[in-house]
Amino acid sequence: MTSIHFDKYDRKGAYHWIEYEGGLLRMSAYTRARYDLVCRCVRAALPDGGSGEILDLGCGDGALAGALSRELCRPVVGADTSERGLALAAEMFGKKGLRGEFRLISGYDTGLAGGRFAAVVCSEVIEHVDDPRAMLDEIYRLLSPGGHLVITTPIRFSELPVDPMHVQEWFVGDFTALCSAVFGAPVQVIRSHPVLWYELVTSSRRWTGRAGRLAANLLTMLGHNPFLQTGGAWRCYTTQTLVLQKRVTPPWAAQ
């Protein structure tokens, strides 16, 4: 699926759980905003009291799957190519008393039943893969008719990906066009995570970065995560794209 070896779980353990719920000094307001926004979109897409499973494709250590399980009280399946990530996910679900199913996949063919899922979440994964169209085609197959995909990716800001772990990045228009080629027009496109705050918390100046992270975390704990802002007049205002898509039957299939 990707030619770049991902070794963060070997070095850092279940670090996404810490970034999501680590408290004032250990949390990442950036990560927490992304997870909360995904949960919000999945909740809005699925009817209250409805049935249907949620798939977290590229679940890693299971932190987002855990948030979905707690927030939506629905069955959650996590799938990933990383044995280490899945082991951490199962371990953390056990510690938190959460119920989830985790599947090791080897590539774009997940081996899961077609039409099984009411929603598929794919957050910060597609920029890591060699063939994003193949991933989107598989997600389309996995969704039940009328099901929703919630997918996030960083917005491109340079000729080459800023993160060396990314195979590619997209401008907002290019990414939504990629998704639209499989799913049709998006239901919703959200730009979030203001670049001003991103530059502050990732500052190479040691005390500036620390102060920025502390301020962002404190605001988050007070209920005002600055990375959840989704508006603004600046041309390069945001660093994250979230696209909400709906699986519809293509015209040729209905004939």
What does this structure look like?
It contains ten helices and seven strands. By secondary structure, the chain is α/β, with parallel strands linked by helices. Strands 3-2-1-4-5-7-6 form a seven-stranded mixed sheet, sandwiched between helices. Strand 4, helix 6 and strand 5 form a beta-alpha-beta unit. Helix 8 crosses helix 9. It is globular and about 50 Å long. The C terminus is likely disordered.
**What does the main sheet amount to?**
7 strands, mixed
Overall geometric form: globular
Structure classification: alpha/beta
Calculate Rg over CA atoms. 18 Å
The helical percent reads 40-55%
The string of secondary-structure elements, in order, is: HHHEHEHEEHEHEHHEH
The residue ranges in which pLDDT falls below 50 over 5 or more consecutive positions are 251-255
Write a compact overview of the structure shown.
The chain has 255 residues and is α/β, with parallel strands linked by helices.
Question: Which characteristics define this entry?
Answer:
19% strand; 10 helices; seven-stranded mixed β-sheet; 255 residues; single chain; 7 strands; disordered C terminus
